[in-house]
Design brief:
The complex is a heterodimer of chains A (about 250) and B (about 450). A six-stranded mixed sheet of chain A has the order 6-9-10-3-11-12, with helices on both faces. Chain A has a four-stranded antiparallel sheet with strand order 2-1-4-5, covered by helices on one side. Chain A is an alpha/beta fold. Chain B has two domains: about 280 residues, no CATH class; about 55 residues, no CATH class. Chain B has about 450 residues and is an alpha/beta fold. Classes of the chains: A alpha/beta (about 250), B alpha/beta (about 450). At the A-B interface, helix 2, strand 7 and helix 3 of A face helix 9 and helix 10 of B.
Chain lengths: ~250, ~450
């Protein structure tokens, strides 16, 4: 059974249609890349999957692990295994990173009927994971993302993903604003989590990230629809030739 | 027209006049005190209860809000004393030296006045007035603003309170906790306290007010606080009155040179609350942090009115007040910073923020700067708004349910003010109180 099944999805924001009949199927263990020009609807897709309120789904359906995704609140989706790595992670002054991580992890475990982690278990888990992502202990003592550099914020997203162990991780332009070293750290973090049961949707504008996170399937998103699907070589083609032909196709 | 309106007495004004007329003969104090009471009452008789025509009371029209005046409280009975034993739970396990007052009367047998450390003197106001105490004679009425009618009523009708002196250079081992409990009786208490912290002394003072729900009792409490040169004083006031109570309280403080002074007010209880702070920076080089957190719901009304009067040079004051308003609650903040001509190099910054959890809640904010010196740094900022939906979504996208996400954000919002409290145990106790408030709010 497909982990994620999107059928004929139409989405509007402020009365403007952004997704115009999007279809996508992601099976367990697959890594999909979604590439496309600015304004094609990439981030809208990411936010709709996570459950952001500003988007109106006008038609179509999304099944997540066989269940109607739109019946679930954002926190319920997270507990069911949906994770969005934000393009612009938010700063939350006054909320300590450790409190945030622990509250999130235990809220999910509680909802799934699992035991909450004890403090020592939790601290060990965070330290081990943070170490692999080159996240300093000092960063964990600060408020969530406050005073973090762009690269630190992205690494913090990957840390959250590693701790929460989702079934589907949607990475929304996680490569934007990263230098090559930070990009490698982030890609390593993702690659370590690849497993037969876990899927990824990697949204990106550039091929660069895909050299490190090698996708199984690449899609081109343009004007709110998937207009082409291929193997990993499609990403290289796009890098060489740009998106112009896909934009024209739709316009024609 | 105005004069005509003012001559019509409300039921509360008439009742207060009656209380004063019948009680004045038995209220404690010598002839000089009796004269002070009379002068204060005359001001009230002339002005009436503060109302919206008075600029300082614009948002808290006590004349309209006070439908009646309760009879003066009488000393507590055995049942009230037994119930008061469980009071003060909000402080958690913070070790304090407790002074317990029920309906404004000092209760020695519930208080911890044995084995006072050297330099510490404690008495009740009633006892001190009866004994013509020198501290009282030298200090009472010297700081409380005589023109404020709420203070005038307190002076006219003051029954009891605490009189505390901390001698030069000495330190209190435990925080002093003035624990004011109301019994179930719908009575009025007029509490007046005096705290003198002498040069170089160190003290922490907690005032807490609590009482039962379902009783529309009234409290008017005033504290005159003298902070000597190089003294270090932390003051925390917790207004946790019962949900039908009327609470008016005043802190009037004079702060000496090179002192450190912190004051924090936590307001969560009461039907109508007016909390006044009149601070005078009398000596140079003092650092002060004046903060507050207010949590209101239902139809609660709470007003914080602050006047920070910088008289001496080189003082730094930081004012941070945060309020969280739910339901149809009404939060008011009025903050005035005055910098006198000689108070050069004053550095005063005031920030007030209101978080509105409901469309029907209201926040009023009136910052005022009156600067008469030319080399100062002064500023103020004020915000009012709803919870940030983007932040809430970020938390929910990580699996945190909506109510818990809101609670985290509200705690973070108030935490910024509560963090300013130096005493770790008290900080935690107040964060716990916030958590309890949030839990009660959750559907």
């Amino acid at each position: 059974m497909a982990l994620l099944e999107i059928k004929g999805l139409h989405v509007e924001i402020d009365g403007k249609e952004i997704l115009k009949g999007l279809d996508l199927t992601v099976n367990a263990g697959e890594v999909h890349a979604i590439m496309g020009p600015n304004g094609s609807g990439k981030s809208t897709l990411a936010y709709v999957l996570a459950g952001k309120a500003d988007y109106a789904v006008t038609s179509g359906e999304v099944l997540f692990n066989g269940k109607n995704l739109f019946d679930m609140a954002p926190d319920e989706r997270a507990a069911a295994g949906m994770f969005l790595a934000f393009q612009y992670p938010l700063e939350i002054p006054g909320v300590a990173t450790m409190t945030f991580l622990r509250t999130a992890l235990n809220a999910q475990r509680k909802k799934r009927g699992e035991a909450e982690l004890s403090t020592p278990e939790f601290i060990k888990k965070v330290r081990d994971t943070a170490g692999k992502l080159s996240i300093e202990q000092e960063m964990l003592r600060r408020a969530v993302n406050v005073g973090f550099s762009g690269g630190e914020k992205k690494r913090n997203e990957i840390l959250q993903m590693a701790l929460l162990e989702p079934r589907l991780a949607v990475l929304d332009e996680t490569d934007s604003g990263l230098d090559i070293d930070a990009l490698k750290i982030v890609a390593d973090g993702v690659n370590r989590l690849r497993s037969p049961g876990r899927s990824f949707v990697v949204i990106t504008h550039y091929q660069r990230l895909l050299a490190y996170i090698v996708p199984d399937i690449v899609h081109v998103l343009s004007h709110g629809r998937i207009v082409k699907t291929g193997g990993k070589e499609l990403a290289l083609e796009l890098e060489a030739r740009g998106y112009a032909e896909y934009q024209e196709e739709v316009l024609a | 027209m105005n004069a005509e309106v003012a001559t019509i007495k409300t039921a509360a004004e008439t009742a207060l006049a009656h209380e004063f007329a019948t009680a004045r003969g038995r209220l404690p104090g010598d002839d000089a005190i009796a004269a002070q009471r009379k002068a204060a009452f005359d001001l009230f008789a002339k002005e009436g209860l503060p109302n919206r025509r008075i600029e300082e009371w614009k948002y808290t029209d006590l004349r309209a809000l006070m439908r009646d005046a309760k009879p003066l409280a009488v000393p507590p009975d055995a049942a009230a004393k037994a119930r008061a034993k469980s009071a003060g739970a909000m402080l958690g396990d913070v070790e304090t030296r407790r002074l317990v007052f029920i309906d404004g009367s000092f209760v020695a047998e519930l208080s911890d006045v044995a084995n006072l450390e050297s330099g510490l003197t404690i008495s009740s106001l009633a006892a001190a007035l009866a004994a013509d105490d020198a501290t009282v004679e030298a200090h009472l009425g010297k700081l409380a603003p005589a023109g404020d009618v709420a203070v005038a009523l307190n002076t006219a009708l003051m029954g009891d309170g605490a009189v505390i002196r901390i001698a030069a250079g000495s330190t209190t081992e435990r925080p002093l906790h003035l624990l004011f409990v109301a019994s179930a009786k719908p009575a009025a208490s007029f509490i007046r306290s005096l705290v003198v912290v002498e040069e170089g002394a160190r003290a922490m003072l907690i005032e807490s007010h609590e009482g039962p729900a379902g009783s529309d009792y009234q409290v008017n409490a005033a504290l005159e606080l003298f902070v000597g040169d190089r003294a270090h004083v932390d003051h925390v006031k917790i207004i946790g009155e019962g949900e039908d109570a009327l609470h008016v309280s005043t802190l009037a403080a004079a702060i000496g040179a090179h002192a450190r002074f912190n004051s924090f007010t936590f307001t969560a209880g009461g039907d109508v609350v007016r909390n006044q702070l009149f601070l005078k920076f009398d000596g140079e080089g003092t650092l002060a942090g004046i903060r507050g957190a207010t949590l209101l719901k239902g139809r609660q009304h709470a007003d914080t009115t602050l006047v920070a009067n910088h008289v001496a040079r080189d003082c730094q004051s930081r004012e941070v007040f945060k309020s969280v308003l739910d339901g149809e609650a009404h939060g008011v903040f009025q903050g005035r910073i005055i910098v006198r001509p000689q108070a050069q190099k004053t550095d005063a910054k005031m920030m007030t923020q209101a978080l509105l959890l409901s469309d029907r809640a209201e926040a009023d904010n009136k910052p005022e700067l009156e600067i008469f010196a030319d080399d100062v740094q002064c500023g103020h900022g004020a915000t009012a708004g709803a919870l940030d939906d983007e932040l809430k979504f970020y938390l929910m996208a990580r699996g945190i349910p909506a109510a818990e996400a809101e609670a985290l954000l509200i705690q973070a919002f108030l935490g910024e003010a509560i963090e300013g409290i130096e005493h770790a145990g008290l900080r935690e106790a107040l964060m716990e109180a916030v958590a309890a408030w949030l839990k009660a709010r959750a559907p």
